[in-house]
Sequence to fold (238 residues):
Amino acid sequence: MKTIIHKSGTRGYADHGWLKSHHTFSFAGYQDPDRMNFGMLRVLNDDLVQPKMGFGTHPHQNMEIISIPLKGALSHKDSMGNKRAIEVGEIQVMSAGTGLTHSEFNDSKTDEVNFLQLWIIPEEMNVQPNYEQRKFDEAQRKNRLQTVVAPKDKLEGNALPVSQQAYIYRTTMDSDTNVELNLKSENNGLYVFVVDGKIAVDNNMLSKRDAIGISGVEQVSITAEQNSELVIIEVPMT
Fold:
């Protein structure tokens, strides 16, 4: 087994006034050659957008982009004609493929928006761009894993599709509960991000916004030391 721990305070940070962003991996002005990615997981940004502010129209190409709102609602508009808000409980997936442009904006006059943005390197380049968004039942992840993203050729349940052999799971765990995850492939690794709470993974204690990457195992067991919320990303390591 190989593990890497990223404590919350070691993340990169950018304060643009309208946007405060913590970068788990190298991004924009934060560059660390030892923190470029975890396997095919290239970006995990923890963004806080101020009221009536947002990201202007900008391009993406050949990247799987997943947005997970944690607080507030973010309005989305893209070159494929999609125009809607992403709210807490929903997840948005974009396969940028051959190229697209989009914008994201906090329409609230008073409330901040906090969301996680993940970028996963695709297994196939220049696919047809795709956008999907879905609301997931919070009760279905209580003390168990809820699959919210899966490979487009191996979709399970209500999961959203990505062009990679990657999976994203969510769970909200009560204190003293345990979940186990069997990895889909021996080539895959698991990146566990603590949205809130405190957990134990392989005798490692992790708190709010800490994370651990694990590879070279078939199964991972996670125990909640407090009521906790997790986002877990399973990706190919090569």
